[in-house]
Design a protein that fits this description.
six-stranded parallel sheet; 13% strand; 190 residues
């Protein structure tokens, strides 16, 4: 099976770290409460920050967040099992777009854990295009907007949903998962 895989919030626990630093920035730096929608996966939609404030957050915290993030619990074991079973993994990520060094930091983390994916697509805005080009059998992502777009275009998607994020109705193209055990069970049944 050809598996497309996002990094942040799926392989790397950066999304939890992002939300922690977003709250610190909003509370301590901006001395405000600009949270407008907890269910949004990206800070640009979660907070009512100006473009200047968003840039300040990116400059101040993005690389720190990347360096403090680790692999998602259970990922390494399930990844190794699935690789042994012959599955192919293609990274399709936006990482490296806002702060180019975040790509290097992800590579560092993957290398430290002896993880070598079959193919990499960095700084991707249109994951649908890559999924179609690569003919992935399934994509794993944590952004509900991306999951919706993929499923609307008949790409099977595992929605790695964090507790606060938007709940999507499951269908033949969307299955919600919350950990790597869920992912393993789903792929084994295919």
């Amino acid at each position: 099976m050809k598996i497309g895989i996002d990094l942040d919030g799926v392989v790397i626990d950066s999304e939890t770290t992002f939300r922690t630093y977003e709250e610190i920035f909003d509370t301590d730096t901006l001395k405000s409460n600009n949270l407008v929608n907890r269910e949004e996966p990206k800070f640009q939609a979660r907070y009512n920050w100006t473009e200047e404030q968003q840039k300040e957050f990116i400059d101040k915290y993005f690389l720190t967040i990347s360096k403090e993030s680790n692999l998602m619990s259970g990922f390494l074991r399930v990844y190794k099992l699935l690789k042994e079973q012959g599955h192919e993994f293609i990274v399709i990520t936006a990482r490296g777009g806002f702060v180019k060094e975040m790509k290097d930091d992800a590579i560092r983390l993957l290398n430290e854990n002896n993880i070598q994916f079959d193919k990499y697509y960095w700084h991707i805005d249109n994951k649908l295009e890559v999924c179609q080009k690569e003919k992935v059998d399934i994509m794993i992502d944590d952004d509900w907007k991306i999951v919706k777009k993929l499923s609307d275009n008949n790409i099977k998607t595992l929605y790695f949903r964090d507790t606060n994020l938007v709940k999507l109705e499951e269908s033949q193209y969307i299955k919600e998962v919350n950990n790597w055990g869920d992912i393993y069970r789903f792929i084994k049944k295919q």
